[in-house]
Design goal:
This protein is α/β, with parallel strands linked by helices and about 325 residues long. Helix content is about 40%, strand content about 15%. Strands 1, 2, 3, 4, 5, 6, 7, 8, 9 and 10 form a ten-stranded mixed β-sheet that branches. Strand 3 and strand 4 form a beta hairpin. Pfam families: PI-PLC_X (PF26146). GO terms for molecular function: phosphoric diester hydrolase activity. This is Phosphatidylinositol specific phospholipase C X domain containing 1. One of its GO terms (biological process) is lipid metabolic process.
Amino acid sequence: MEGPLQTIVHMCHGHGQWMSQLPEKLWDIPLYNLALPGSHDTMTYCLDKSSAVSVNESKLVKFLNKCLPCIVRPIIMKWSVTQVLTVTEQLEAGVRYLDFRIAHKANDPSMNLYFVHMVYTTVTVQDILWEILRWLETHPQEVVIIACRNFDGLTKRLHNHLVACIKEIFQCKLCPRNVVPTLRTMWHLGHQVIVSYEEAAELGKHCELWPPIPYWWGNKTSTRALIRYLEHMKRMGRPGEFFVAGINLTENLRYILTHPFGSLKKMTLQSLPCLKIWIKQQYPGPKKKCINIIAGDFIGNNDFVKDVIELNTKINTPLHCQSELEQIAFNSQLLHL
């Protein structure tokens, strides 16, 4: 009998080549005007249960973890894991935006870099970049956006090391930021990777690095509050280029204490019916209320990737943002969930 993880993995195959299968009328539209599925905190599927707590966590969390590890560590893991698919499985599922929170372990004399979300991962950044390259080599018309963020504990020397690794591994597959990233252009030039880098000092030195990609993070425990936040951000107007609408809920201490048998996965799965409705109402494109990247947790569930990809079928139809009737229908659906 298959467990839930195996079921999710099987559900996720089938979108590995979706960019190459888009109609030609979309090949000249910049990627920041298409709908792209993304994963939030991409690398949390391989968090190390035995690693130290991140240096950026609060003193209280570090103290409790040190004094009561048998109690605190399982709680940390329940609320830190946001994905169960490996990076290759996510790419094969159709994810095209990867959210990399990069860190260097305190007191580690090596140059090894890891991913972090409260605790560190078992794999290094360099190993995952090579894994992505291997996938790209078998999917020559797919494009991946890698957002390098956070940089806990990275010195100037470590930044130099990380950028050198990125350039060495991806080489000519890296798309320079002066290129308008349409599929036709990227296919013609052989580019498959866009790397955004959240460290301003490095951007001026490397044309292969793109500016940080804005992430609409609601920081909400309630699905309806998250949707209200996303609708507010849409009314304010989308950025001109890449940006992410995060459909991930976020726990806080109060929520954890009032849900002693809960987990981030349970919290996410409960939110998916409402969020699925919201996703299907969206339009990609350059207009004020249009979306670009939509990133979520546990991306193998509930047709999330398929729903985002299918938004691209709305392009080059009479493009408009939600009509009054659509909004009324949307609100009515939410009330019945």
